[in-house]
Amino acid sequence: MEKIARLVYKQNVKLNFMKLSFLLNIFVLFFCLTTATAQKAVKELTLADQRQIIEVLLKERLEKSPEKTIYLSTANLPEEIQKDFPLLKDKRIEFIAAENSVKAEALCAYEFGKFERSGKFVSVSFGDCNEGLAYDFKRFGDRWKSVGLSINK
């Protein structure tokens, strides 16, 4: 009888271990899936984020500029952003279609590069025919702020 009791006890221990292992594997799998989904969501930059970054960049770069009309290439600017483009005080923004690169060069139009996400930072280049700046942005709460730049020629 004692042998049977030990055998039943060992089987119960194995069964409990298997249940615990199964639950632990389910938890790890769930954690990995939610982490991967969260990382994917962090990497995606919404149009609202892009618009806010553009607004910060324009204010920093062009608000005190003596130019009254800012010529801006539509390259890398989604139509949704063009339709609801951030305004600059006492400045007029005139878009130049990306296909008209000759006109853009003649007017020395400003142009945005592609938005690139790297961890918590977003980088975007912005400049005219003379020079460009690569700006880095980081989200603080619900606002994007410029945290650095480098000159590109």
Topology readout:
Elements: H1 2-43, H2 47-62, E1 69-73, H3 79-83, E2 92-96, H4 101-107, E3 111-112, E4 116-118, E5 121-127, E6 132-140, E7 143-152
Parallel strand pairs: 1-2
Antiparallel strand pairs: 3-5, 4-5, 5-6, 6-7
Q: Can you tell me about this structure?
A:
It contains 4 helices and 7 strands, in the order ααβαβαβββββ. The chain has helices at residues 2-43, 47-62, 79-83, 101-107, and strands at residues 69-73, 92-96, 111-112, 116-118, 121-127, 132-140, 143-152. The strands form 2 sheets. Strands 3, 4, 5, 6 and 7 form a 5-stranded antiparallel sheet that branches. A two-stranded parallel ribbon has the order 1-2. The model is unreliable at 38-42 (pLDDT under 50). The protein folds into 2 domains: 1-44; 47-152, no CATH class. The chain has 153 residues and is of the alpha+beta class. Strand 6 and strand 7 form a beta hairpin. It is rod-shaped and about 100 Å long.
Proportion in β-strands: 25-35%
Distance between the termini: 88 Å
Mean pLDDT: 81
Order of helices and strands: HHEHEHEEEEE
Helix content: 40-55%
Q: What is the overall silhouette?
A: rod-shaped
Q: How many domains, as an integer?
A: 2
The oligomeric status of these chains comes to single chain
- Class by helix and strand content? alpha+beta
- What is the alpha-carbon Rg in Å? 27 Å
Tally of helical segments:
4
What is the count of β-strands?
7
Q: How many strands, which pairing sense, and closed or not: the largest β-sheet?
A: 5 strands, antiparallel
**Uncertain runs with pLDDT below 50, 5 residues or more?**
38-42
